Every structure is written in structure tokens, then in C-alpha cells.
Amino acid sequence: MVSRVNITENAKKLIDTLKEKYGELMFYQAGGCCEGTQPQCFKKGEYYLRYKDVCIGIIEDCEFWVDKDLFEYWKHAHFELDVIDAIGAGGFSLEVPLGKTFKVNYRIFSPDELELLQPVKFNL
């Protein structure tokens, strides 16, 4: 099976740091105006998912959820979670006080990969 999401080593290190401080985490990527389209990191269960939001995978034992409309637009793309030294548009994410921002690098799946994608989970 082909994963829909993976993680860079820098993002892994930051997640480990955040887990030490906050415990279990989750990610959510919206397509709205306030948080832009950058992924947000929350303590697990502290972000309320909307009906039919989509979990595209698990990274470092953290579910990675995306807005249902964003998923429709990006369902043919692989997400790679990375981190940069900056404060992004959304100030609610747990990494912001550290002067960091999670970001996603995208690439389109090949036709062969599309045939082998891991299934997603919908919030119903």
C-alpha cells in the first residue's frame, strides 16, 4: 500500500519535542482563511472535526486530518509534512511558540501509486 502522508526528519524531531510537552497529538489541515492551508498541530481531541473530514494517514502515532473539501482537491497528491523556522498564518498550532511552522510539500501520485493508495477514514 502507498501512504498518502509522510514526514521529514526535521518534522519528526519537532513532533517528538511537542509530544514530550503535550502528550498525544493530532494534525488538521483546513482550506480556510484564518489558518490558511498550513497544517495545524493540536493536543489529541482538542480540535473538533467536522462531518466527513478525512484522516489521510498516521504519522508518528498522530492522525493527520484534512478538511473534506481540501481532500477532494488534493486526493491525488502525496503530503509530506515538514517544518520551517517561521511563524505562519495560524497562531493556534502548538509549534508556534517555538518559532516554527509545519508545512506540507505536495507531489502528484503516479498512475501506479493511485492503484495502491491506503484507504482513508471519514469522520462520520
Give me the secondary-structure topology.
Blueprint: E1 5-7, H1 9-22, E2 25-29, E3 39-43, E4 54-59, E5 62-66, H2 68-74, E6 77-85, E7 100-108, H3 111-114, E8 121-122
Parallel strand pairs: 1-6, 2-5
Antiparallel strand pairs: 2-3, 4-5, 4-8, 6-7
Organism: Faecalibacter bovis
Protein name: DUF779 domain-containing protein
Pfam families: DUF779
Give a quick summary of the entry.
The chain has 3 helices and 8 strands.
Report the structural category. Answer: alpha/beta
Indicate the low-confidence ranges by residue numbers: none
| Named CATH topology | Hypothetical Protein Aq_1857, Chain: A
Under the CATH scheme, which class? Mainly Beta
Give me the strand/helix succession: EHEEEEHEEHE
Q: What is the β-strand count?
A: 8
Helix content range: 10-25%
- Name the CATH architecture: Sandwich
Determine the strand fraction and express it as a percent band: 35-45%
> What number of domains?
1
- End-to-end C-alpha gap: 24 Å
Compute the gyration radius: what is it?
A: 14 Å
Largest sheet: 5 strands, mixed
Average pLDDT over all residues: 93
What does the model show?
By secondary structure, the protein is an alpha/beta fold. It has a single domain, classed as Hypothetical Protein Aq_1857, Chain: A (Sandwich), CATH 2.60.300. Helices cover 20% and strands 35% of the residues. The strands form 2 sheets. It has a 5-stranded mixed sheet with strand order 3-2-5-4-8. A 3-stranded mixed sheet has the order 1-6-7. The longest helix is centred in the first third of the chain and has 14 residues.
